[in-house]
Specification:
By secondary structure, the chain is of the alpha/beta class. It folds into 2 domains: about 40 residues; about 130 residues, 2-Layer Sandwich (Double Stranded RNA Binding Domain), CATH 3.30.160. The chain is built from 3 helices and 8 strands. The strands form 2 sheets. Strands 3, 4, 5, 6, 7 and 8 form a 6-stranded mixed beta sheet that branches. Helix 2 packs across helix 3. The longest helix is centred in the first third of the chain and has 29 residues. The radius of gyration is 28 Å and the shape is elongated. The two termini are about 55 Å apart.
């Protein structure tokens, strides 16, 4: 119980006493939202997150350079193919040739590092981690400006006893994660 104006008011009476103000506040908030939301129908803001500007409809993803010195001649082709496949599956920007593309996404494989991750007793390496680092540049060819240039790095683990097959699976995992990061930066990083 609470004492107000010389008398005692039980909690339910106190809540009822303050209720009309609360209802008025909530009512005004709903009225404001109902008036504002239809007005935002034509505005460029979105509740679903950022998206590619409407003037960009196509993209070219040429095969990039491999400056890593890793020694796998197929790495750049695999990376470029997986990146292109990501854009095809995403369907935000249509893949086309460089000459007719609205946007251009170019990349260079900078490094491929292979290091132990899990070492067991007796200094036996149980798992290894392949880390692939690339530098990507995204250009708006319609406006003739560079939108961003960034380095991306991601990794894939593999069992050290599995040989070349397991190592290739680690690289594939790293490339899968990289291409996902690059796609997200390109289509949602606005």
């Amino acid at each position: 119980m609470t004492r107000t104006n010389g008398g005692w008011v039980s909690p339910p009476d106190r809540w009822r006493a303050g209720r009309p103000d609360h209802i008025a506040t909530v009512g005004l908030l709903y009225a404001f939202l109902l008036l504002m939301l239809p007005g935002c129908a034509g505005c460029p803001y979105s509740f679903t997150g950022a998206s590619v500007p409407p003037h960009l409809k196509t993209i070219a993803v040429p095969i990039g350079e491999d400056q890593s010195g890793y020694g796998d001649p197929t790495l750049r082709d695999v990376f470029s193919r997986q990146l292109t496949d990501r854009f095809i599956n995403d369907n935000t920007l249509q893949i086309t040739d460089r000459a007719s593309a609205d946007a251009l996404l170019e990349g260079v494989i900078l490094s491929v590092n292979d290091a132990p991750v899990v070492v067991q007793a007796g200094e036996q390496v149980a798992r290894r981690r392949i880390t692939v680092t690339v530098r990507m540049r995204f250009q708006d060819q319609k406006l003739r400006k560079q939108v961003w240039e960034k380095e991306f790095s991601n990794w894939g683990d593999y069992s050290s006893g599995g040989g070349l097959t397991q190592r290739n699976e680690g690289i594939a995992e790293a490339v899968r994660k990289l291409t996902e990061d690059i796609l997200n930066e390109t289509v949602a990083g606005w």
